[in-house]
Write a sequence for this structure.
Protein backbone atom coordinates (compact mmCIF):
# COMPACT_ATOMS: atom_id res chain seq x y z
CA UNK A 1 0.00 0.00 0.00
CA UNK A 2 1.53 3.30 -1.06
CA UNK A 3 0.80 6.46 0.91
CA UNK A 4 -0.42 9.20 -1.43
CA UNK A 5 -0.02 12.88 -0.62
CA UNK A 6 -3.08 14.86 0.43
CA UNK A 7 -4.15 18.41 -0.20
CA UNK A 8 -2.26 19.85 2.75
CA UNK A 9 1.25 20.74 3.84
CA UNK A 10 3.31 18.53 6.17
CA UNK A 11 3.91 21.65 8.28
CA UNK A 12 3.19 25.35 8.27
CA UNK A 13 5.48 28.00 9.79
CA UNK A 14 4.10 31.46 10.52
CA UNK A 15 5.51 34.14 12.85
CA UNK A 16 7.44 31.73 15.05
CA UNK A 17 4.62 29.19 15.23
CA UNK A 18 5.24 25.80 13.63
CA UNK A 19 2.26 23.50 13.14
CA UNK A 20 3.03 19.94 12.04
CA UNK A 21 0.24 17.98 10.35
CA UNK A 22 -0.83 14.65 11.79
CA UNK A 23 1.85 12.01 11.46
CA UNK A 24 1.23 8.30 11.20
CA UNK A 25 3.54 5.52 12.41
CA UNK A 26 5.08 5.03 8.99
CA UNK A 27 8.28 3.22 8.09
CA UNK A 28 9.22 3.35 4.40
CA UNK A 29 5.81 4.82 3.63
CA UNK A 30 3.79 2.07 5.30
CA UNK A 31 2.12 1.93 8.72
CA UNK A 32 3.91 -0.47 11.07
CA UNK A 33 0.87 -1.18 13.27
CA UNK A 34 -2.71 -1.22 12.05
CA UNK A 35 -6.15 -1.76 13.45
CA UNK A 36 -7.85 -1.08 16.73
CA UNK A 37 -6.30 -1.17 20.19
CA UNK A 38 -6.28 -3.60 21.93
CA UNK A 39 -8.07 -6.02 19.56
CA UNK A 40 -5.68 -5.85 16.59
CA UNK A 41 -2.77 -3.91 18.05
CA UNK A 42 -1.52 -4.35 21.61
CA UNK A 43 -1.09 -1.41 23.96
CA UNK A 44 2.70 -1.83 23.80
CA UNK A 45 2.62 -1.78 20.00
CA UNK A 46 0.36 1.28 20.02
CA UNK A 47 2.77 3.09 22.37
CA UNK A 48 5.61 2.22 19.98
CA UNK A 49 3.47 3.61 17.14
CA UNK A 50 2.84 6.85 19.08
CA UNK A 51 6.57 7.21 19.70
CA UNK A 52 7.24 6.73 15.99
CA UNK A 53 4.62 9.39 15.19
CA UNK A 54 6.49 11.77 17.50
CA UNK A 55 9.79 10.97 15.78
CA UNK A 56 8.18 11.59 12.40
CA UNK A 57 6.93 14.94 13.74
CA UNK A 58 10.47 15.78 14.79
CA UNK A 59 11.67 14.95 11.30
CA UNK A 60 9.40 17.68 9.92
CA UNK A 61 10.42 20.06 12.71
CA UNK A 62 14.05 19.47 11.79
CA UNK A 63 13.23 20.11 8.12
CA UNK A 64 11.42 23.35 9.01
CA UNK A 65 14.36 24.45 11.17
CA UNK A 66 17.03 23.71 8.59
CA UNK A 67 18.25 20.74 10.65
CA UNK A 68 18.72 22.85 13.81
CA UNK A 69 16.42 21.56 16.57
CA UNK A 70 17.97 24.09 18.97
CA UNK A 71 15.64 26.59 17.29
CA UNK A 72 12.68 24.93 19.03
CA UNK A 73 11.61 27.16 21.90
CA UNK A 74 8.71 25.02 23.09
CA UNK A 75 6.32 22.26 22.22
CA UNK A 76 2.94 23.92 22.77
CA UNK A 77 0.50 21.13 21.99
CA UNK A 78 0.13 17.53 20.88
CA UNK A 79 -3.05 16.04 19.50
CA UNK A 80 -3.24 12.27 19.61
CA UNK A 81 -5.73 9.92 18.04
CA UNK A 82 -5.90 6.18 18.71
CA UNK A 83 -8.13 3.72 16.88
CA UNK A 84 -9.79 1.83 19.71
CA UNK A 85 -12.17 -1.02 20.26
CA UNK A 86 -15.57 0.23 21.47
CA UNK A 87 -14.90 -0.77 25.09
CA UNK A 88 -11.34 0.63 25.33
CA UNK A 89 -10.94 3.94 27.15
CA UNK A 90 -7.21 4.33 27.69
CA UNK A 91 -6.10 6.31 24.62
CA UNK A 92 -4.29 8.88 26.83
CA UNK A 93 -1.91 6.16 28.07
CA UNK A 94 -0.99 5.40 24.46
CA UNK A 95 -0.35 9.06 23.56
CA UNK A 96 1.83 9.41 26.67
CA UNK A 97 4.57 7.75 24.59
CA UNK A 98 4.56 10.72 22.17
CA UNK A 99 4.50 13.17 25.08
CA UNK A 100 7.51 11.46 26.63
CA UNK A 101 9.52 11.95 23.42
CA UNK A 102 8.92 15.71 23.56
CA UNK A 103 9.55 15.93 27.29
CA UNK A 104 12.77 13.93 27.11
CA UNK A 105 14.14 15.82 24.10
CA UNK A 106 13.20 19.37 25.08
CA UNK A 107 13.03 19.14 28.88
CA UNK A 108 10.80 21.84 30.40
CA UNK A 109 10.31 23.29 26.92
CA UNK A 110 8.74 19.98 25.90
CA UNK A 111 5.85 20.34 28.38
CA UNK A 112 2.69 20.82 26.32
CA UNK A 113 -1.07 20.96 26.27
CA UNK A 114 -2.65 17.85 24.77
CA UNK A 115 -5.70 16.05 23.55
CA UNK A 116 -5.77 12.26 23.39
CA UNK A 117 -8.85 10.50 22.10
CA UNK A 118 -10.09 7.21 20.80
CA UNK A 119 -11.45 7.23 17.25
CA UNK A 120 -13.12 4.77 14.89
CA UNK A 121 -10.56 4.93 12.07
CA UNK A 122 -7.44 6.66 10.78
CA UNK A 123 -5.86 6.89 7.32
CA UNK A 124 -4.37 3.66 5.94
CA UNK A 125 -5.77 1.77 8.95
CA UNK A 126 -2.94 3.15 11.15
CA UNK A 127 -3.58 2.63 14.84
CA UNK A 128 -2.27 6.08 15.95
CA UNK A 129 -1.88 9.60 14.57
CA UNK A 130 -0.24 12.55 16.33
CA UNK A 131 -0.08 16.23 15.34
CA UNK A 132 1.87 19.02 17.04
CA UNK A 133 2.44 22.72 17.48
CA UNK A 134 5.75 24.38 18.40
CA UNK A 135 7.27 27.80 18.79
CA UNK A 136 10.59 28.25 17.03
CA UNK A 137 13.14 31.05 16.83
CA UNK A 138 14.13 32.72 13.59
CA UNK A 139 17.02 31.19 11.67
CA UNK A 140 19.17 32.08 8.69
CA UNK A 141 16.63 30.52 6.32
CA UNK A 142 13.92 32.80 7.72
CA UNK A 143 15.87 36.05 7.23
Amino acid sequence: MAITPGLYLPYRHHDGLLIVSGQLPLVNGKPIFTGAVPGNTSEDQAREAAELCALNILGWVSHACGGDLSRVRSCLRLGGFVVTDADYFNAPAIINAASMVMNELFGEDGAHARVAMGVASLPFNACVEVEAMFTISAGDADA
